[in-house]
């Protein structure tokens, strides 16, 4: 049955306003109860009622429009001059200024204003409002803040074909921008539509790059010049060195010729603190370190072949996979190699073989990063294979003085904290960022944070140590803000860190001396014994007996010797 409601109204009443009035309530329909119908119903006993006291929640989604931010400048024009005086003409302005200074009104005004300014200066000097009254007293120990970090911004490769974020460099002027080098380091990666561009990003506008750098080959490394902020140095995948002037756009100002450049990708490029601010040097896996001047990039000004045999032969050179230079040591630099060796070089040496000063061996694989401690330049950090190691140049021919535990994933990058001498960061191939504070924990990191599901390839910290940039294999750069406890230097922290490094250095010296003594003792014993070779079975049997005798002696000392267990152990060993 179709239910239909018809509403009938005159045509003339359509559109007329409704008029409401107050009236008493009236009953329009009244249906009295019928007791005869009670037999058709079943009484319900007991009766349950549910009440919901909590507020009823509803889900709402709002998609707001993105605000478009634009950067605009203000052109200040000097004013206050009479109409007949041109402010750009220095002669007219100086002549008018002299005329005004000779007037009596000017003298009276200066005297009147001078007394007011003098009164204000004396009033300010009367008390120091920033004086610390209790600076010498020890501060009350507050609760230790739990180490933490949070992501504040994410920068993504704008291209559809994703590449690796191989290097990050912060702008020297208050870190207002960050330069990211994008390159695919996979062997023979020939994907179509792969861009060669790298980008400079403004942190206030992370959705679009501020400047697009267009090299002739993908960039592996990218560095700002600390003296001239507009100059950016890049090392290309094809071995060329390129530099940009950001004021002139994204096209390179000049680049090195291919025939005189590196033969392999440039994994390290650093600016040198010269007077002109135009000198730099680069290192590559072709085994060469080349020095350049951006004013004349037609050929390198100097060359060093990383041949540790000191024969200066390129076929025996070790490939440079990491490069570090500290302005506090202007003549020395460190080179990490593909073979796991770290080379300390001195540029001021007379001959090329003498420039290779010292060699540090300890890593089982390639050294992906080597960097000096910003507070103790003789102490440096290296990252490679499954560990990060700390070395000192005071021990030339020994192992590292400190190291992290062996991790399951590879370590691909690392850097020191610029504000805390014992804190450093490491990036792993499983996308985890580890923050170590060796002053408090040496076996486990103070904070381990899962940044991405992809490997972390590059790390770079701001000068204040608060913001850390992490680049991934898919070209995503995550900016992390670290908790204040990991980026604020505490009282006597530098002294305690120096003491720790000195203690570990002395310990390593003692171990090194004992190792040398043992080698000399073994050599003397080998000379004293006849040249007859021992039977390997006898050597094994003697070592087995010595092992079980040590076990028995230890059990006797603890009072827990069990003859049956020792016999069973001997039978199992046999």
UniProtKB/TrEMBL annotation:
InterPro entries: Dynein_IC, WD40/YVTN_repeat-like_dom_sf, WD40_repeat_dom_sf, WD40_rpt. It is found in: Cytoplasm, Cytoskeleton, Cilium axoneme. The keyword Cytoplasm applies. Gene3D superfamilies: YVTN repeat-like/Quinoprotein amine dehydrogenase. The keyword Repeat applies. GO terms for cellular component: microtubule; outer dynein arm. One of its GO terms (biological process) is cilium movement. Keywords: Cell projection, Cilium, Cytoplasm, Cytoskeleton, Dynein, Microtubule, Motor protein, Repeat, WD repeat. Residues 562-574 have a biased composition (Acidic residues). Its main location: cytoplasm. GO terms for molecular function: dynein heavy chain binding; dynein light chain binding. Belongs to the dynein intermediate chain family. This is Dynein axonemal intermediate chain 2. It comes from Corvus moneduloides. The gene is DNAI2.
């Amino acid at each position: 049955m179709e239910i239909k409601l018809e509403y009938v109204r005159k045509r003339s009443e359509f559109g007329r306003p409704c008029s409401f009035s107050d009236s008493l309530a009236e009953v329009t329909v009244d249906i009295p109860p019928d007791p005869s119908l009670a037999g058709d119903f079943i009484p319900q006993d007991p009766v349950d009622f549910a009440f919901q006291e909590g507020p009823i929640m509803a889900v709402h989604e709002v998609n707001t429009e993105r605000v478009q931010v634009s950067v605009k400048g203000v052109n200040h024009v000097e004013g206050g001059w009479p109409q007949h005086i041109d402010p750009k003409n220095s002669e007219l302005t100086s002549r008018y200024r002299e005329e005004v200074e000779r007037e009596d009104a000017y003298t009276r005004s200066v005297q009147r204003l001078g007394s007011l300014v003098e009164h204000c200066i004396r009033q300010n000097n009367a008390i120091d409002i920033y004086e610390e009254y209790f600076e010498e007293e020890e501060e009350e120990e507050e609760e230790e803040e739990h180490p933490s970090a949070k992501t504040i911004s994410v920068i993504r490769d704008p291209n559809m074909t994703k590449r690796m974020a191989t290097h990050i460099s912060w702008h020297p002027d208050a870190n207002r921008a960050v330069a990211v080098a994008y390159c695919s380091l996979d062997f023979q990666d020939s994907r179509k539509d792969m861009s060669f561009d790298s980008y400079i990003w403004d942190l206030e506008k992370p959705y679009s790059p501020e400047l697009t750098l267009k090299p002739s080959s993908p960039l592996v490394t990218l560095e700002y010049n600390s003296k001239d902020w507009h100059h950016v140095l890049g090392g290309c995948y094809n071995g060329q060195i390129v530099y940009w002037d950001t004021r002139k756009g994204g096209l390179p100002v000049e680049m090195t010729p291919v025939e005189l450049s590196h033969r392999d990708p440039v994994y390290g490029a650093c600016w040198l603190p010269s007077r002109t601010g135009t000198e730099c040097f680069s290192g590559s896996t072709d085994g060469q370190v080349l020095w350049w001047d951006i004013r004349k990039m037609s050929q390198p000004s100097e060359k060093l072949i990383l041949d540790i045999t000191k024969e200066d032969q390129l076929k025996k050179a070790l490939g440079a996979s990491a490069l570090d230079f500290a302005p506090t040591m202007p003549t020395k630099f460190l080179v990490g190699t593909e073979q796991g060796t770290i080379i300390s070089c001195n540029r001021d040496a007379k001959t090329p073989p003498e420039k290779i000063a010292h060699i540090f061996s300890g890593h089982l694989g390639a050294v992906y990063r080597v960097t000096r401690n910003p507070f103790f330049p003789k102490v440096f950090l290296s990252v490679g294979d499954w560990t990060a190691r700390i070395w000192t140049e005071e021990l030339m021919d020994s192992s590292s003085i400190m190291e992290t535990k062996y991790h399951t994933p590879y370590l691909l990058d690392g850097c020191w904290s610029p504000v805390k001498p014992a804190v450093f960061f490491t990036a792993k191939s499983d996308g985890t960022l580890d923050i170590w504070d060796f002053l408090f924990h040496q076996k486990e990191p103070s904070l381990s944070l899962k940044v991405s599901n992809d490997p972390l390839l590059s790390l770079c910290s701001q000068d204040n140590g608060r913001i850390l940039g992490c680049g991934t294999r898919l070209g995503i750069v995550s900016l992390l803000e670290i908790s204040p406890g990991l980026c604020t230097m505490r009282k006597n922290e530098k002294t305690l860190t120096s003491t720790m490094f000195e203690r570990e250095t002395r310990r390593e010296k003692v171990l090194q001396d004992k190792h040398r003594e043992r080698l000399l003792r073994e050599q003397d014993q080998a000379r004293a014994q006849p040249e007859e070779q021992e039977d390997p079975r006898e050597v094994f049997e003697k070592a087995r007996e010595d092992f079980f005798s040590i076990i028995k002696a230890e059990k006797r000392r603890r009072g827990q010797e069990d003859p049956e267990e020792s016999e069973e152990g001997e039978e199992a060993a046999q």
